[in-house]
Amino acid sequence: xxxxxxxxxxxxxxxxxxxxxxxxxxxxxxxxxxxxxxxxxxxxxxxxxxxxxxxxxxxxxxxxxxxxxxxxxxxxxxxxxxxxxxxx
Length: 88
Description:
Blueprint: H1 7-15, E1 20-23, E2 28-31, H2 37-47, H3 62-71, H4 74-80
């Protein structure tokens, strides 16, 4: 997906509250640091998403899910936590 030498640049962008565009199998994805409220606002603006619509957050573990649930704002939690699935 990404060239190895691009990872540091991508991480820097995300850590500074930036938004990235990345290819998937079928569409282009738009991503940001979901724990950064300003980054999520940028993502919503880019995608023209109202606050009433949730965004997808992908986590790697239950610990990360717990962290996300305690870090996200109450409004974000209400609108975005709809389905939790365990991936292999």
